[in-house]
Specification:
304 residues, alpha/beta, Rossmann fold, two-stranded parallel sheet, 35% helix, globular
Length: 304
């Protein structure tokens, strides 16, 4: 890994999202000129002062708007289609933003003279595994992934064709969590279940084992990729492996309540990422799960 030069112009899509906000903040702190790409009607209030922002609908033929961005040095593509949990609703938008827009962004980056592009994929494309998942582990067939993850896998495949012309890095996050995250995601959902007394399902008595990553550590990995001289494909995950039962127990202790569990005999689907490539190429995550979880709980609204 090489240190990235300051005062470069970096385009960030999905800049108002959980990871995007942290990426923009960290880029600004290190002195980069950031251009935040926001979905139409998304507020720029969460962005640091002085950050330029532009509204582009990546799901509606964005080529002309992207060409108007002018020259830039690198691009971090974090944008996600809204409503992806509700398939088949928003299926067209998911495909356009995850697949078509990824190709359009790579094309625009080359035209803009950019050196590299960093794409946010997903650790979910591997499917569960009883052993830690490495980057060379097979990706599940599309008919087993579900539409959203199949679109992520398709985008990875298509972006590979740009690598003779653009340094393309693909990062596969596993269970990013942090303040401001939507309540439908795993960690906020578990906190809210424990808080409300709802039983938490734990297959096999433990539930899945995972290694979640604190949002600031995930953002740091995306920024570190900007300084890599060769294409990187890396799992992005945290330093601690925990089961869903352990998470709920920690939450309960933090809240001063008792966690309730619904134990099943089904074997748990583990999603533990091997982070050797991340540690070597991008730097290991440094926030312990207990530290991050406490910060998440402290900053969640009373009722979510």
């Amino acid at each position: 890994m090489k240190g990235a030069a300051a005062q470069r112009r970096i385009v960030v899509t999905g800049a108002a999202g959980l990871v995007g906000r942290s990426v923009v903040q960290q880029l600004v702190r290190r002195g980069d000129d950031v251009l935040a790409v926001l979905r139409p009607n998304v507020s720029a209030n969460a962005l640091p002062a002085g950050v330029s922002a532009v509204e582009i609908d990546l799901g509606e033929k964005p080529e002309q708007a992207l060409a108007a961005l002018g020259r830039f040095d690198a691009l971090i593509h974090l944008a996600q289609a809204p409503g992806w949990h509700g398939f088949p609703k928003q299926a067209g938008a998911i495909a356009r933003i995850n697949v078509a827009a990824s190709a359009a962004l790579a094309e625009a980056a080359i035209a803009a003279g950019a050196r590299c592009m960093v794409m946010a994929s997903s650790g979910g494309i591997y499917g569960p595994s009883p052993t830690p998942i490495r980057e060379e582990s097979p990706i599940k067939p599309g008919d087993e992934l579900g539409f959203y993850l199949a679109a992520k896998a398709a985008a990875e495949s298509l972006l590979g064709y740009f690598r003779p012309h653009l340094l393309v890095h693909v990062l596969r996050p596993f269970f990013v969590y942090g303040p401001g995250q939507a309540p439908s995601f795993l960690l906020p959902r578990l906190v809210n279940s424990v808080r409300s007394g709802t039983a938490v399902r734990v297959d096999g008595g433990t539930g899945p084992a995972i290694n979640p990553i604190w949002v600031e550590d995930a953002a740091a990995a995306f920024i570190a990729a900007l300084g890599c001289d060769t294409a990187v494909t890396a799992n992005i995950a945290g330093p601690d492996v925990v089961t869903v039962r352990e998470i709920a127990t920690l939450v309960a202790a933090r809240l001063g309540v008792t966690a309730n569990f619904d134990e099943t005999a089904r074997a748990p689907d583990n999603y533990v990422a091997d982070t050797s490539v991340m540690a070597h190429k991008l730097g290991a995550a440094t926030t312990s799960f207990e530290t991050g979880l406490s910060a998440l709980i402290d900053r969640l609204p009373p009722e979510t």
